[in-house]
UniProtKB/TrEMBL annotation, chain A:
It comes from the Bacteria. Pfam families: DUF485 (PF04341). Keywords: Membrane, Transmembrane, Transmembrane helix. The chain crosses the membrane at residues 35-57, 69-91. InterPro entries: DUF485 (IPR007436). This is Uncharacterized membrane protein (DUF485 family).
Length: 114, 543
């Protein structure tokens, strides 16, 4: 890569472009997107299910489950549970699946710039 | 019967506790500011905070007076419909966690505009992003200052407009002092201290309320229903506030949309990601923030229903701060004037810390984006920029004080929701497109930012929020313009999100596809590689 760099005279951009086209980077990007996009779809769907039920199915939501605890409250608390769970899952996943590969690539790129 | 709210508490105790907080935090700010040398120190706290520290500061920045006073009041009066605020404000963090925080951290330097203009035409996009930053921060600021006014009315028994305005001015002056002396480092420490105090204070009140009902949530809910004869059972069901008509249901969905998509477009939240050294720490920050914010919102659920059960909706409505005084009134009911003093000082601290965070964001955007990059085209030293930023802080202080005096009395959770709608419309589409859509270009960004921004603001201006909303029972005005004979609203919803957010997303696509400008392949490669690997990202400042 250092050869091309000298030839093109624009070291930084050549390198970034090369990295972007490399199979390792494509794999990293694919792995990242395959996790975050479906996860985003999932929690948004779950959130809007709650919102729409609250707006258009108040009778169902007002159904009492135990004492004064109704379906609506359980749905609301369910949003908290899912948010905490997704946070934990994502952090654990990214630490394991993204960081090592990203760090390796970063050392490669920054090492060559010096 | 409760005594009249203007007579509750002891103003001397309240002021003493608050003064103690101000002195303590000022000492911290002065200490933290000793290492403020460069622009990275002033704007980004030297990028040397750890993930957990920044996570607590984010919680301190985010849990504004709207979260504490506004949501507790909304739940106390509107029951379950108030709970939507808590849920939307929390779930929104997943957008920031999964799609925005780390990528932004790796790509930008100081402001949101750094990222948005990264691979597009610098000056027009930066200008648009800076304007949007200033507008969103202004709306948010307005909400906080309005909260300060209401709180003061309650605590010091100042019901006169002039007295309240004076206190709003004092809050503004304090905020300017914090930011000028401490920069981002000082601001961050104020936010950390405040977040800890707020969570502890709300936690104690929550346990106290639950203990009164033998830790049986169902009994607490039952007591809230008994004390609210007007609402009755409906207090626990969805629809009390938004269920009346088809239009009001749409308003509920509009609010839900703005809340969940707004957070990741808030400039003062995005700027906090630059205070940590790496994307890994940015991820840890958000994770910490989500836990703290989530637990706090569970507290507000108890506090809201607790206020309904122990104080009662009539006493809350009669108090000078109306819905915003539910939490302080509950504190007084539980622990007398001492707890009221502590909780009020915490609420004041909350307002101060959030306002300081907004001020530094707005001043950074003006100095770094508009002055440094657009006017001076980058030919200005970091010191020159910081000097302009400091002058901007003074201007923002004046604007905030004047705006706060005007907004005094509005429900703050609601005002903040408007800021969220503007942020979700003007900022989020461009953030996501520039990170993930290769074809995206300058025209797409400009159409989306300006289109989202102006549609949100125009719809708010012609909504019932500004004019023409009348309480059906009392005939009193519920709008900002309190003269009921003035009515120029034609947009039926309070919150513009359901129209302006999709519109901004569509404008981004249409603008991009109708422009001949191609992708800057090299800059896009740099942005994509940097955002995912952290290569070439700004490093922490070494002292």
């Amino acid at each position: 890569m250092s050869e091309t760099r000298r030839a093109d005279g624009d070291p930084e951009l050549t390198t970034y472009r090369d990295v972007q086209l490399s199979p390792d980077f494509s794999e990293l990007r694919r792995r990242f997107r395959r996790f975050v996009f479906p996860m985003t779809g999932l929690f948004l769907a779950w959130y809007f299910l709650y919102v729409l039920l609250a707006a258009y199915a108040p009778d169902f939501m007002s159904h009492k489950v135990a004492g004064n605890i109704n379906v609506a409250l359980l749905f609301g608390l369910g949003q908290f549970v899912s948010t905490f769970a997704i946070t934990m899952i994502y952090v654990r996943w990214a630490d394991k699946e993204i960081d090592p590969a990203a760090e390796k690539m970063r050392h490669l790129i920054e090492g060559e710039h010096q | 019967m409760l005594p009249l709210a203007t007579e509750i508490g002891n103003p001397t105790v309240n002021i003493a506790i608050f003064a103690l907080f101000v002195v303590a935090t000022l000492a911290i700010v002065i200490r933290a500011s000793r290492n403020n040398r460069t622009a990275a120190d002033y704007y980004a706290g030297g990028r040397s905070f750890t993930g957990p520290q920044n996570g607590i500061a984010i919680a301190g920045d985010y849990l504004s007076a709207a979260s504490f006073l506004g949501i507790a009041g909304a739940i106390a009066l509107n029951g379950y419909d108030g709970f939507l605020y808590s849920i939307g404000f929390l779930v929104a963090w997943l957008v920031a966690l999964l799609l925005v925080a780390e990528l932004i951290r790796n790509t930008g330097r100081f402001t949101m505009a750094d990222v948005l203009s990264f691979r597009l035409k610098q000056r027009p996009v930066r200008m648009a992003a800076a304007i949007s930053t200033l507008v969103v921060s202004f709306f948010y600021l307005l909400a906080q200052m309005a909260g300060a006014g209401g709180l003061v009315a309650l605590l010091l028994g100042i019901s006169g407009r002039a007295g309240q305005s004076l206190v709003i001015a004092v809050v503004g002056l304090l905020m300017v002092t914090y930011v000028l002396v401490g920069g981002m480092k000082g601001t961050t420490w104020v936010q950390i201290v405040k977040a800890v105090l707020l969570v502890i204070g709300a936690g104690i009140m929550t346990l106290w309320v639950l203990a009164k009902y033998a830790f049986n949530l169902s009994d607490l809910l039952g007591a809230a229903v008994d004390k609210s004869p007007a609402a009755g059972e409906k207090l626990l069901n969805p629809g009390l506030q938004y269920g009346a008509t088809g239009i009001s249901k749409l308003d509920f969905i509009s609010l839900a949309l703005a809340l969940v998509l707004g957070t990741a477009g808030l400039p003062h939240v995005l700027m906090r990601f630059y205070t940590v050294p790496s994307s890994k720490e940015a991820r840890r920050s958000v994770s910490w923030a989500i836990w703290i914010i989530g637990i706090f919102y569970l507290f507000t659920l108890v506090l809201g229903y607790g206020a309904a059960a122990l104080v009662g909706p009539d006493a809350i409505r009669a108090a000078p701060g109306k819905a915003n005084s539910a939490a302080p009134l509950l504190a007084y009911e539980l622990g007398g004037e001492l707890l009221l003093g502590v909780i009020s000082a915490v609420a004041f601290a909350t307002i101060l810390a959030v306002v300081a965070g907004l001020t530094i964001t707005a001043s950074a955007s003006f100095a770094h984006d508009i002055y440094g990059q657009v006017i001076k085209k980058g030919q200005v030293s970091g010191d020159g920029e910081v000097r302009v930023a400091r002058i901007t802080v003074l201007v923002i202080g004046v604007v905030a004080i004047i705006g706060g005096i005007f907004a005094n009395g509005q429900n703050i959770a609601f005002l903040v929701a408007l800021a969220f709608a503007v942020a979700a419309s003007a900022n989020l589409p461009t953030i996501l497109y520039s990170l993930f859509w290769r074809r995206f270009n300058t025209r797409g960004a400009l159409w989306s930012i300006y289109g989202g921004l102006s549609s949100a603001i125009i719809l708010i201006a012609f909504s019932p929020v500004v004019s023409g909303k009348v309480d059906a029972k009392t005939g009193a005005s519920l709008s900002m313009i309190t003269d009921t004979s003035i009515d120029f609203h034609w947009f039926p919803l309070d919150n513009p999100g359901i129209v302006s957010i999709p519109l901004a997303f569509v404008l981004g696509i249409v603008g991009t596809l109708t422009s001949k400008e191609g992708t800057n392949i090299d800059k896009f490669a740099e942005m994509e590689v940097r955002s995912l690997t952290g290569a070439g990202a700004e490093k922490a400042v070494q002292h």
